[in-house]
Amino acid sequence: MLTFAPQFRKTGVSSKTIERQDSRRVEIARGLRDGIPIALGYFAVAFSLGIIAKKAGLTAILGFMSSFFTRASAGEYGVYTLVAINAAYVEVIAMCLVTNLRYMLMSAALSQKIAPATSWVHRLLMACCITDEVFGISVSRQGYTPPAYTYSAALISTLFWASGCAAGIVAGGMLPAPIVSALSVALYGMFLAIIMPPARADRNVLYALIACVVLSGGCSVAPVVSEWSSGTRTIVLTIVISAVAAWLKPINVNDDGEA
Description:
Blueprint: H1 5-11, H2 15-55, H3 60-70, H4 73-84, H5 89-100, H6 102-110, H7 120-128, H8 132-139, H9 147-171, H10 177-201, H11 203-219, H12 230-248
Helix pairs in contact: 2-4, 2-9, 2-10, 3-9, 4-5, 6-8, 10-11, 11-12
């Protein structure tokens, strides 16, 4: 019978190292697979953002770079609107902070899905990869989420997002407005496809989703609260609903990260 143990000793590569490399390749493939539907939705929405960026005076290269490092539809829309009216840098930075603060909450939530032995460098890079949809597929996994999975999903989706913005700038608003609006619906349908399976599997998740819909709609018309920005309302509702859900129905996790 053939054995591979002598080869490991000869080459200096252990079986555990090979297993880790194989596992990393599998997670990269899974991340790319799960990231492709997100990437396609991103391209459609970023295309419409590119048309707005064109009106603000951005070139295709600038649009690609800004979208590659920002990856936030509401944030980029606000920034491009401010750029179009020659707003101050302070206003642009404040806009980005307000509209993107929710990603800090998502990063904190994702940290609970990362293996304890994961280095702080990987934790920091995974936090930088967070978008609404990448966060959704990362936290919905069973067990811990490996960095390779989040990296590959974020990479493919980010490339399509940035490319969509650049393509929209090149198009320069040539497409009719109804077509552009119709393309943006794909992203919301894709996000529903991400959150509905966990809601069907766990009734507590379903209750939390219903609370999100009801309270979000109510806050948009309620006195005082309706005057807040959508980003601020999202942050407050996320903190309140997640805190109440965690207090009423805490999830017990074992040493392997599984509930």
